[in-house]
Amino acid sequence: MSVSAGSGVAKKPRYAWVDFAKGLCMVLVVLYHLSLWVETEVESGPWLWWIVSDALNPLRMPLFFFISGYLSISSLRHPLDQTRSRTVGLYFVYILWTGMFLLRRWLPFLSTDTPPELHQLGLSLILPTSFWYLYALPLFFLVTKILLRLLGTHSVYALIPVALISALAPLVQPYTSTILGEPFDAAKIPSVLANFLWFYLGVHGTALWTRLSARPGYPMLVGALSLYAAMYSVMTLFKLELFLETALSLLALFATAQLVSRISMETTVSRGLRNIGSQTLPVYIFHIILISVLSAAVKLTGLMPFLRDVPGLAAALVPPLLVMPLILICLLAGRLIKGSRLRWLLEAPTFLVKTREGRKPQSKEEIH
């Protein structure tokens, strides 16, 4: 992980807050998917953790993509041939795990009334689906590089149309939801369109983030959080997501800049989050698979009726109790794989990412 030049921030503090923020995002992502599983397969809510996850929706992925763009600045200055790990490399990982994840649809105990179709499997490999974050990163990197090349010093002004696309992305949902049918996951095209803004803002917002972080204050943090709560309440009450969610994400980023500048990065919790944030790739990939395994295990062992007998119990207890165990299993699996001959499961083979001159390709900064 490198540090972009000219920010005026020491390397060590920047590493700390970056990994802290990424670790926080991972915890929220795992909590969200556990809440989603409980919500869709066990309960008929909405219940507590689903409500919490929904309230944090404007923060989770925007913050993650902002950091990814923030950490891509130096690499964007290099020729594409020297950044293959960010493009071809990540797309290889996306295709590999998407393919393996989708093959579960052919397992006998997960069979459905609708048999999987091979052409739908093919579409799932070239469109963003379950692991859409890994799909989006190479795409965002390439599009940003093109915009920087075409617009030069005026590239910051592209934030205006990109923000408009982000705000209107939900309108695309009805036209993309039917591209992939059951039992495949829906194409996450609206999510990709909505989140490019945050990656691009991360590329152009280094100086602004540094200024916001350098002037922390509890009144500003409390004010930002209070305004966020008020705006979120208005948005959900009057169904104004199309008009307010992008603004909410900007406010969430501002509050995060204030938060990370005030929190000690040496507490037990902070060190734990930093550890998670330094190894996000295995957590991102494996937690989705583990939740799928959990779902199958609950059905096969007959535990589902038990979980449904007490309304709200599973929704209240399962997500918070399973977040950290799932993350720890993911981290352990990641370390075992990276220390073995199977490291190609998490890193593209050298022949795909090496430069024409044979130099060692740059390492991925935004996801490990």
Task: Characterise the protein shown here.
The chain has 18 helices and no strands. It has 368 residues and is an all-alpha fold. The chain has one domain. Helix 1 runs antiparallel to helix 3 and helix 5 runs antiparallel to helix 6. The radius of gyration is 21 Å and the shape is globular. Mean pLDDT is 88; it is low at 1-13.
Which helices and strands occur, and which strands form pairs?
Layout: H1 11-42, H2 48-55, H3 57-70, H4 73-76, H5 88-102, H6 118-126, H7 132-151, H8 159-168, H9 173-176, H10 189-204, H11 206-214, H12 218-238, H13 241-262, H14 268-277, H15 280-300, H16 304-309, H17 313-338, H18 350-353
Helix pairs in contact: 1-2, 1-3, 1-14, 1-15, 1-17, 3-10, 3-13, 5-6, 5-7, 7-10, 8-10, 8-13, 11-13, 12-13, 15-17
What's the SSE pattern?
HHHHHHHHHHHHHHHHHH
Q: How much is the average pLDDT?
A: 88
Strand fraction: under 5%
The Cα radius of gyration reads: 21 Å
Low-confidence stretches: 1-13
Put simply, the count of helices is 18
Number of strands: 0
* Terminal CA distance: 9 Å
Oligomer: single chain
What general form does the structure show? globular
Please bin the fraction of helical residues: 55-70%
For the sheet with most strands, the description reads: none
The structure class reads mainly alpha
